């Protein structure tokens, strides 16, 4: 049924006619899907054969082949098989293709991003994997220990994917410097592809525990680091809590819905599921009393041997995840660590009190695991473990916030009744996600392989936030040499921060967001999102929409049978009733933009929770509506006439189909996501359908592409020629499939520099330049002038203020004269290389830098303080960036 | 204001001048040719007559692409050199295919004398070198430098070509009458001298010798005459 809102739509529909709408593929009955599911392996093999036959037409040669990454059977019965490109037996990074096999056996390529005409500088890698690790270890100096054994996967690396320089501000000195864990080296291979290694390792923190996952792309001939990414708690984001601490008090009320019909929670069973086998663990239904979602039924397990219940769901997640096996392993009698492969599989809730992951199950006292002393000390009445008192009532939580305390006498151990509150919420979140995946996508679990999820609750490190780990370990397949990622599907919910008015992070939208993130990351595994792309923005928008679907539709179609209306807000764990993100009007937080503009990746990569604004809004519009009332929080100046949405379920289906069938790269842009979603909507509902029109208009309302039937709006984006020749910081404009976002135009200190910008969609290419601050100015992370802005003429001649710090970044903005709604926001990195202190930045200064090479920092500063400018330091890395920055500032 | 406080007034003068469109002129305007001269079709360079540091024409030069070698005086050694060369915009300083503005002739040893562990083990190990160049003032000022970074590398004799730069005949040159003299002025040049002190050996931590010699030396480079022809 189409909901046509305005004449243009109706006309379009009439013109389109029924034949176009006939392109929509119907969803198949469950029984038919089950048959096709069972044929999936064989059909994926057909897809592989088909792909091989198409290699020539795809521009590939005899050295190219494909390896299946994963497959699924969608609700239309198509087998969707995702393949990695292999060249001379080695995977090509960022090169994949998706093939679809219809129920009738017709095959087609859904989307491809392949590397053609690969010509490598060497017949084989000059460095062995062991040597690559050797070099990486040296470059991590001062030496940081590895956690799990690093894995080294040989790859072909397209040099267009080169990483870039990421600046970090040292909070102690206040100086900017190159972030050693997130920056590539200033090195540009001369060929389009090189042999490389993809190295993944866990770095140990100061406490000896793995705290940073480092992914490095290394040139396998030279040892140069081509790209580097780091994730995990070791990467400090100073604004992790910014939203909560700032006490968001959004003034717009959440969307009003019809009142929900909620079943009585008492209707939930608190007994063993009838008919279950009695010899092993028995599936049961428990009774959860949560703080955010009220009281509900949750899946649990009964252990007849111990006569107690646990927060383990053996009916969901039949494949154990690696996290449970590894982190809950044990030392054998020889002192060797062993994976715990005996643990029953299923979605599981644990806590990590005293740094020991201990489940809310009976086997904590069964002898297979021994709680640490710290855990035992926190055990209180009603909690098993050392007391031997089992969870006998199958009632979980009391609906009150859990406050961590080391004082056992206060009855606030993680296993206490209030400690169970978050545990019940987490089980509910996993269950809802599982049920929605099954209902909407005919999929078992996040990966379709029924791999279990694990929730860690009441965590004392990630206070007020939820983090996730999609993968816990990597292995290199000895046959294919591909890096195999072993999913953990683990999310960790921090305890609250009572002093800051922040409650437990075990909140349904935050849990859903983490699960949505993992769904995205698992699907695009093997890819990496460049820190200068909009990939993280798109991912987080996707995750937020899925969060709404999990919470609302997962509850409705799962074991709850309960209507929970989507709020389109994320993170409601604030005692003041506020929330972190409002998808309908992201700017309510005072920072997030409501519409797309060039430069969004600056924001999105440092703080995805802010940069995601336009994607959040697009998906809200798509699901619900855009108002034509300019006073509404759902009004968009980019689509003033408003629009009608297609509902949460259809929106989620479009997004999931776009992710699984139409996206190949984690570096996808907002515009790329628009293309993928329109294609997915077309496949699902037909060309010119109301759903396609709504999808198009929803993106347009977030300033991502034109409205349906309308041309693209004016676009302003920075000229990438401002970037260093040898860093490949920006090779595409925003209309390319995988644009690399603006990063730092590097200009010399105190010398006028002509900035450049591109503009399209209008004959009036004029722009007005200003030094208007970025939306996120004032946050303190980026100096952005610290209240002092660079001087810029309306024609774009930039002159930095003279300041006494080493590196500074300043805001610049170019706004279209033809359409002032369209603008590009950038940052200029002001660079000084006046190492000899003569008042001029020139190549002669590098003589002074050469003199300082290998002389200790404090020694040469004692005689020449001018060496503090530029990228201070004596290492090869600093030298590289000082050379690259000069080239950028003076080489164009 | 540790660094810039004493520089600010001077720099501001330069910046304001540049910002208002009157900066960047290091030389007087070209000498006016005879009114009847034909348009230029090439470049002609006459080497300086003085000995010592000089920019001399390389045999590989063509009428539209002048190649200049930097040579130094006999009997002197150095560890690197950089210079700024100004023109008036009527010629283009050549940018090489690798993106640099000067070419290494191999005299200076830019890499580590004793390759570090990884350079030894892996011959292709990437090692940055200080071979740097660019233009300022809308292309009117060439600034280049080539420096040995490793103190363990010996200072080099200077009589062989130390590096090359290129000057291209461009559209602005073609607009000049043949015979026009194109200004080409050496603004500043500095070297790392031979004696830069000795890094103390452990456990000796007396850096006095290094610090006393932690400086660059100014030099004068002679430049020949450049004409459009």
From TrEMBL, chain A:
Keywords: Hydrolase, Metalloprotease, Protease, Signal, Zinc
Residue ranges occupied by any Peptidase M4 C-terminal domain in the UniProt entry: 567-704
Hydrolase is among the record's keywords: yes
Domain of life assignment: Bacteria
Extent of the signal sequence: 1-24
Coiled-coil regions listed: none
InterPro entries linked to this entry: Peptidase_M4/M1_CTD_sf, Peptidase_M4_C_domain, Zinc_Metalloprotease_M4
PANTHER family associated with the record: BACILLOLYSIN
The name this protein goes by in its record: Peptidase M4 C-terminal domain-containing protein
Organism: Geothrix limicola
TrEMBL record, chain B:
PROSITE patterns named in the record: PROKAR_LIPOPROTEIN
The organism of origin for this protein: Geothrix limicola
Domain of life: Bacteria
Full protein name: Lipoprotein
């Amino acid at each position: 049924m189409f909901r046509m809102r305005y004449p243009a739509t109706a006309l379009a529909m009439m013109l389109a006619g029924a034949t176009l709408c006939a392109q929509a593929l119907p969803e198949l009955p469950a029984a038919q899907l089950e048959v096709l599911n069972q044929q999936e392996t064989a059909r994926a093999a057909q897809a592989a054969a088909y792909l091989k036959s198409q290699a020539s037409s795809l521009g590939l040669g005899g050295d190219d082949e494909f390896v299946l990454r994963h497959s699924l059977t969608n609700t239309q019965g198509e087998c969707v098989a995702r393949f990695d490109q292999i060249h001379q037996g080695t995977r090509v990074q960022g090169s994949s293709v998706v093939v679809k096999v219809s129920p009738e056996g017709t095959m087609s390529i859904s989307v491809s991003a392949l590397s053609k005409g690969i010509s490598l500088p060497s017949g084989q890698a000059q460095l062995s994997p062991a040597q690559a690790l050797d070099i990486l270890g040296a470059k991590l100096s001062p030496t940081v220990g590895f956690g799990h054994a690093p894995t080294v996967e040989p790859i072909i690396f397209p040099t267009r994917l080169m990483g870039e320089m990421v600046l970090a501000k040292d909070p102690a000195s206040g100086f900017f410097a190159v972030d050693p864990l997130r920056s590539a080296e200033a090195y540009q291979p001369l060929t389009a592809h090189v042999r490389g290694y993809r190295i993944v390792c866990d770095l140990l923190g100061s406490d000896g525990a793995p705290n940073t996952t480092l992914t490095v792309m290394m040139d396998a001939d030279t040892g140069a680091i081509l790209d580097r990414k780091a994730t995990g708690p070791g990467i400090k984001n100073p604004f992790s809590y910014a939203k909560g601490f700032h006490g968001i008090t959004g003034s717009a009320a959440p969307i009003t819905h019809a009142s929900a019909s909620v079943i009585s929670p008492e209707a939930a069973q608190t007994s063993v599921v009838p008919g279950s086998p009695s010899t092993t663990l028995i599936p049961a239904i428990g009774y959860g009393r949560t703080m955010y979602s009220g009281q509900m039924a949750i899946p649990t397990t009964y252990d007849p041997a111990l006569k107690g219940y646990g927060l383990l769901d053996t009916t969901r997640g039949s494949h154990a995840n690696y996290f449970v096996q590894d982190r809950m392993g044990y030392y054998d009698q020889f002192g060797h660590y062993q994976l715990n492969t005996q643990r029953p599989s299923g979605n599981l809730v644990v806590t990590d009190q005293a740094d020991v992951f201990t489940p809310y199950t009976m086997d904590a006292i069964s002898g297979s695991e021994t709680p640490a002393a710290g855990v035992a000390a926190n055990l209180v009445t009603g909690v098993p473990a050392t007391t031997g008192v089992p969870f006998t009532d199958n009632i979980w939580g009391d609906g009150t916030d859990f406050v961590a305390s080391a004082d056992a006498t206060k009855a606030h151990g993680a296993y206490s009744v209030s400690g169970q509150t978050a545990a019940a919420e987490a089980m509910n979140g996993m269950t809802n996600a599982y049920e929605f995946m099954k209902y909407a996508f005919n999929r078992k679990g996040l990966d379709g392989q029924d791999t279990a999820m694990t929730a860690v609750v009441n965590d004392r490190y990630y206070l007020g936030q939820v983090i996730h780990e999609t993968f816990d370990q990597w292995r290199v397949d000895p046959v294919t040499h591909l890096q195999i990622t072993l999913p953990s599907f683990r999310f960790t919910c921090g305890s609250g921060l009572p002093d800051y008015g922040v409650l437990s992070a075990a909140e349904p939208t935050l849990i859903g967001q983490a699960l949505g993130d993992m769904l995205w990351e698992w699907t695009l595994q093997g890819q990496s999102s460049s820190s200068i792309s909009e990939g993280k923005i798109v991912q987080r928008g996707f995750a937020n929409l899925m969060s709404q679907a999990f919470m609302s539709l997962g509850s409705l179609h799962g074991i709850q049978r309960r209507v929970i209306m989507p709020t389109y807000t994320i993170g409601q764990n604030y005692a003041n009733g506020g929330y972190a993100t409002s998808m309908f009007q992201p700017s309510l937080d005072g920072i997030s933009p409501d519409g797309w503009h060039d430069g969004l990746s600056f924001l999105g990569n440092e703080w995805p929770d802010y940069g995601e604004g336009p994607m959040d809004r697009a998906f809200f519009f798509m699901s619900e509506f855009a108002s034509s009332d300019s006073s509404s929080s759902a009004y968009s100046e980019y689509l003033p006439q408003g629009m009608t949405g297609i509902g949460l379920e259809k929106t989620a289906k479009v997004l999931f189909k776009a992710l699984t069938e139409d996206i190949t790269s984690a570096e996808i842009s907002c515009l790329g996501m628009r293309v993928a979603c329109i294609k997915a909507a077309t496949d699902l509902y037909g060309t010119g359908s109301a759903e396609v029109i709504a999808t198009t208009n929803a993106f347009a309302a977030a300033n991502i592409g034109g409205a349906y039937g309308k041309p693209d709006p004016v676009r302003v984006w920075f000229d990438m020629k401002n970037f260093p020749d040898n860093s490949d910081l920006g090779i595409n404009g925003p209309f390319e499939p995988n644009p690399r976002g603006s990063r730092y135009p590097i200009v010399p200190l105190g010398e006028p520099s002509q900035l450049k910008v591109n503009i399209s969609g209008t004959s009036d290419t004029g722009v007005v330049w200003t030094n208007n601050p970025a939306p996120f100015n004032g946050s303190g992370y980026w100096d952005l002038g610290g209240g002092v802005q660079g001087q810029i003429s309306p024609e774009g001649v930039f002159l930095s203020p003279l300041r006494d710090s080493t590196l500074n970044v300043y805001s610049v903005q170019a706004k279209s004269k033809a359409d002032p709604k369209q603008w590009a926001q950038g940052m200029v990195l002001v660079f000084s290389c006046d190492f000899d202190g003569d008042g001029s930045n020139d190549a002669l200064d590098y003589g002074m830098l050469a003199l300082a090479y290998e002389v200790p920092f404090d020694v040469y500063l004692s005689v020449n303080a001018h060496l503090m400018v530029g990228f201070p330091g004596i290492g090869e890395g600093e030298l590289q960036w000082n050379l690259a920055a000069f080239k950028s500032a003076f080489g164009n | 204001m540790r660094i810039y406080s004493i520089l600010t007034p001077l720099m501001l003068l330069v910046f304001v001048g540049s910002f208002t469109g009157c900066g960047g002129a290091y030389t007087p305007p070209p000498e006016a040719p005879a009114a009847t001269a034909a348009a230029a079709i090439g470049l002609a360079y006459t080497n300086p007559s003085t000995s010592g540091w000089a920019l001399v024409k390389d045999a590989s030069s063509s009428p539209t692409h002048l190649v200049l070698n930097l040579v130094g005086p006999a009997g002197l050694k150095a560890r690197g050199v950089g210079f700024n060369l100004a023109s008036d915009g009527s010629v283009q300083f050549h940018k090489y295919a690798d993106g640099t503005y000067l070419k290494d002739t191999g005299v200076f040893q830019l890499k580590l004398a004793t390759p570090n562990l990884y350079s030894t083990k892996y011959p292709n190990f990437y090692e940055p070198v200080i071979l740097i160049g660019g233009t300022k003032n809308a292309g009117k000022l060439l600034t280049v430098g080539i420096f040995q970074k490793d103190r363990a590398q010996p200072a080099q004799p200077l009589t062989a070509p130390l590096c090359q730069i290129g000057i291209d005949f461009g559209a602005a040159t073609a607009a000049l009458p043949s015979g026009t003299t194109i200004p080409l002025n050496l603004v500043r040049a500095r070297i790392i001298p031979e004696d830069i002190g000795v890094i103390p050996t452990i456990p000796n931590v007396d850096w006095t010798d290094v610090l006393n010699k932690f400086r660059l030396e100014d030099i004068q480079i002679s430049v020949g005459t450049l004409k459009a022809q």
